Amino acid sequence: MTPRRRDRHGRGLRGPLAPSHVPIAKSRGERFDDFVLDAVERLKPRWGAQLAAVEFAVEEVPPLSELGDGPGRSGPIPFGRAEPARGAQPASVVVYRRPLEARSRDRETLGALVHDTVVEQVAFLLGRSPDEVDPGFDTH
Question: For the segment 70-112, what is each residue's pLDDT rounded down to a tens digit?
């Protein structure tokens, strides 16, 4: 028995709303990933050698272990984390999408917040200040 495909109103199966090459066709998650990639690309001319072995990732929300919720715990929700290399595991920078989206009012603000978060996490990994990693860091 083959599964029935419901074709309500006789219009055929739905297709994409926009061609895949236009910006509107990207999901929020894909656009966020692009912001992270743009931030990393802006740092590569100056820090490319140090960032070559760093893995960059996006997660929806921070894990419960990083949240300051509960008895005896308090603090802001983190926007990202950096983990130095351990053994065979490379250094990594993780950016949390949902807290940054909740904090921003538009795409421009979101892009700036993502960039600042990436700069802060890279600065932590390199043992430098964010101003050293990106001289324009304080100008946003």
Answer: 555 566 889 999 999 999 999 999 999 999 999 999 999 999 9
Q: At a CB cut-off of 8 Å and minimum separation 6, what does 99 contact?
A: 61, 62, 77, 78, 79
Given a cut of 80, is residue 52 above it in pLDDT?
A: yes
* Cα 123 to chain centroid, rounded: 16
The residue count of the chain comes to 140
Strand residue runs (E) in the chain? 55-59, 80-83, 92-96
Is the pLDDT assigned to residue 49 strictly greater than 90?
yes
State the pLDDT confidence band at 115, using cuts at 50, 70 and 90: very high
CA triplet 29, 35, 57: central angle to 5 degrees? 65
> Phi and psi at residue 74, in whole multiples of 5°?
-155, 160
Q: How far apart are CA 6 and CA 17, in angstroms?
A: 19
Helix axes 107-126, 28-51, angle to 10 degrees: 30
Cα(126)–Cα(140) distance, rounded to whole angstroms?
A: 22
